[in-house]
Specification:
Elements lengths: L1 H10 L16 E7 L4 H6 L5 H7 L3 E4 L6 E4 L7 H10 L18 H8 L7 E5 L5 H4 L7 E4 L14 H12 L9 H15 L3 E6 L1 H7 L3 H24 L6 E6 L25 E4 L7 E3 L2 E5 L3 H8 L4
Parallel strand pairs: 1-6, 1-7, 3-10, 4-5, 4-6
Antiparallel strand pairs: 2-8, 7-8, 9-10
Helix pairs in contact: 7-8, 8-10, 9-10
């Protein structure tokens, strides 16, 4: 018997998030988006995220894999970033047809978490590289806490800047690349610090470098960015474990859209079938609202809102 138990233990990942148990209900969600990361790199070249595949994938429910019956897709009128993010936050197909759309026109689930789940403003946060994320995150600016683009981080209530925030703010200014988009390394540093200090119940970490490099046709830095994401996920998971919150935290990792194939990999237009195909990993839970389609079950960006709302009992 001891031999059998030892054998089973050796098959477990080095670090594991426990599936929800009755004595440890899921009460928190961390939502992470890798802008414009294709499923081809996620599933076809696992060397780009070796830590995740070795240590965490066994604890995840996986969507969008080529050999899976769980299909993941963009639910928008066009496979662009802002329309996709608006569908994720609202649970509805938006009228938005470009990345220069105005503020989302309806209430989002982060706003509903504050109204219906009784969460504080600091409990519901978005920390993003791309400043336009604010147009998807909330209908009324200031309802929840957000920090995007090159804006300085500050306390959600007092607007004071503590020494760590000040240091990170100065570093991201020094590393300013000339538009209103922050490098992901500073976004992750700000997000990890915010998580440790405020322990938000819902945190959206939105990363953008991969899409920037893909549009530039820079495959080397696109792939390097995926390896960076892998290391940063590992940091985040270890922080969650150190806070003893791994059993009560659902983690959703996904993207906003796919990309074209071959030489068209730099773009994601409506006439590119793979631009509509995405992927997701969920730890400590499953996506909601899957639609049966023969032997397949289809999920989409519309699955995010009901999944998170179910965790907080407001579905």
């Amino acid at each position: 018997m001891r031999t059998i138990i030892f054998f089973i233990l050796t098959l477990l990942p080095v670090f594991s998030f426990a599936i929800t148990k009755s004595d440890h209900p899921v009460t928190r969600v961390i939502y992470i988006t890798f802008d414009g990361v294709r499923r081809q790199e996620i599933f076809g070249h696992k060397e780009f995220m070796p830590i995740f595949w070795h240590d965490y994938a066994k604890s995840a429910v996986i969507y969008g894999a080529p050999d899976s019956n769980r299909i993941m897709e963009v639910a928008a009128k066009i496979p662009y970033s802002l329309p996709s993010y608006q569908s994720q936050m609202s649970g509805a197909v938006p009228n938005c047809l470009e990345n220069s759309c105005s503020q989302i026109a309806i209430e989002t689930f982060p706003e509903r978490l504050i109204k219906k789940a009784g969460l504080k403003r600091s409990d519901v946060a978005s920390i993003a590289s791309w400043e336009v994320i604010d147009y998807a995150f909330q209908n009324k600016l200031g309802s929840a806490f957000s920090n995007s683009g090159t804006r300085a981080m500050h306390d959600p209530y007092t607007y004071e800047i503590d020494p760590t925030m000040k240091s990170l703010n100065l570093r991201q200014i020094k590393g300013y690349k000339g538009d209103d988009t922050r490098w992901d390394k500073y976004t992750m540093a700000q997000a990890l610090y915010y998580y440790k200090k405020y322990k938000p119940k819902f945190l959206w970490i939105s990363l953008n470098d991969a899409d920037e490099y893909a549009h530039a046709g820079d495959i080397k830095h696109y792939q390097k960015t995926l390896r960076f994401y892998d290391r940063e996920l590992d940091k985040l998971f270890k922080i969650i474990k150190s806070e003893k919150l791994q059993q009560e935290t659902m983690i959703i990792i996904t993207t906003d859209h796919g990309r074209g194939l071959g030489k068209a990999w730099m773009e994601h237009e409506s006439d590119m079938p793979d631009a509509w195909r995405t992927w997701a990993f969920v730890i400590n839970g499953e996506l909601a609202n899957g639609k049966k389609d023969g032997k397949y079950v289809r999920y989409s960006t519309l699955s995010i809102r009901p999944t998170v709302e179910k965790v907080f009992g407001i579905a």
